């Protein structure tokens, strides 16, 4: 890295809404994060639905998202459907501000309560949600099917905005 590169910090991450144009990239990120990923067509369908909202994480000068949060809004409640960060961007503290931005955007759209489900063994995600203020509201036994065919329980969580 040049001296100038060491002196000038990289641009701050950006958070911007994403739509169907990003479906293929979101599917690729999702596939890197989950054992039963959704495809491009799944994302195109969801992103085309009324009430579905997605925010992307953009690093540096990239025009392709490095992560995203996708939610469905019904009246004054929302469900976070999925959150994923690309492998090269994981572990660098990007998920927390991405989630905060998304929650703020939901609040600005009149959402008062946000729900989500998370696999009970996904400690990093559970820690992220707890730091954001989500509390456990329940548990769904055997809700997720893992890559090896076994099942894992889901924790349900909620946050009042």
UniProtKB/TrEMBL annotation:
InterPro entries: Acyl_CoA_acyltransferase, GNAT_dom, YpeA/RimI_acetyltransf
Domain N-acetyltransferase, residue spans: 13-161
Keywords per UniProt: Acyltransferase, Transferase
Domain of life from the UniProt record: Bacteria
SUPFAM superfamilies: Acyl-CoA N-acyltransferases (Nat)
Protein name: GNAT family N-acetyltransferase
Origin organism lineage: Bacteria, Pseudomonadati, Pseudomonadota, Alphaproteobacteria, Hyphomicrobiales
């Amino acid at each position: 890295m040049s001296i100038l590169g060491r002196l000038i910090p990289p641009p701050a991450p950006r958070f911007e809404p994403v739509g169907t144009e990003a479906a293929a990239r979101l599917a690729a990120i999702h596939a890197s994060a989950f054992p039963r990923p959704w495809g491009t067509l799944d994302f195109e369908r969801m992103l085309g639905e009324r009430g579905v909202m997605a925010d992307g994480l953009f690093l540096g000068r990239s025009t392709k998202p490095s992560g995203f949060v996708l939610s469905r809004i019904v009246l004054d409640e929302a469900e976070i459907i999925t959150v994923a960060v690309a492998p090269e961007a994981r572990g660098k503290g990007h998920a927390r501000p991405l989630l905060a931005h998304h929650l703020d955007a939901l609040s600005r759209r009149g959402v008062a309560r946000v729900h989500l489900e998370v696999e009970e063994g996904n400690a990093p995600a559970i820690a992220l949600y707890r730091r954001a203020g989500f509390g456990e509201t329940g548990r769904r036994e055997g809700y997720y099917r893992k890559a090896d065919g076994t099942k894992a329980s889901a924790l349900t969580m909620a946050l009042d905005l």
